[in-house]
Amino acid sequence: GPASIAGYEIVKKLFLFSMFTQFIIQPLWPAFGEALESGDLDWARRTLRKAIKMSIVIGAIMSLPLLLFGKQIITVWVGSEFVPSWSLLIGFYVFVLFANYGGVMSTFLNSGALIKKQMLIIGLACLSSVILKIVLSLNYGVSGIIWATILSYSIFYIIPSYKIAFNHLKKLENL
Q: What is the pTM of this model?
């Protein structure tokens, strides 16, 4: 109902600020494209790995207080009627890590011949996410929505994007 949706949105807003690393990573888009075109594959590989690690670590550190003290923060912020479950808080914590990874990886995949593959795996992740959100929300409530996103994107984006990116770099090395 409306109270569940409001509670979900409050938790989402709380965790959104910890995804600011995506703004820092976006300037790498043309840099990755240039590196791939000029054959600077070592730089592209090193920078991609560093960016992934940095983005995930910063997201994990910035989101940890929100996870640990989220119930108290929300109680003070909007009142006790919107205090989320641990499942919802943990779900958004994991989501931040996945979203930060996805931001880095999409920056890399957008910068070359890989955009079609990226669109395919994003499409599959979105489609499966919508279906799973319906199923999991009916069975697990509002926290099922975030876990459906996490599950869908881990299967159809996180793993495939990693393989696509690093296989592409390996293929370019062998040319």
A: 0.92
- DSSP letter for 47, please: H
pLDDT digits (tens, 9 = 90+) for 114-134: 999 999 999 999 999 999 999
Sign, CA dihedral 140-142-145-147, equals negative
DSSP-assigned letter for residue 144: H
- Among residues 27, 22, 169, the alpha carbon closest in space to that of 104 is found at 22
Which of 143-164 are b and which e, b meaning 16 or more Cβ less than 10 Å from the residue's Cβ? bbbbbbbbbbbebbbbebbeeb
What whole-number distance in Å separates Cα of residue 115 and Cα of residue 73? 40
User: Which strand (E) or helix (H) includes residue 102?
Assistant: helix 86-109
Residue with tokens 């409306």: 2
Report how far residue 1's alpha carbon sits from residue 30's, in angstroms, rounded to the nearest whole number: 44
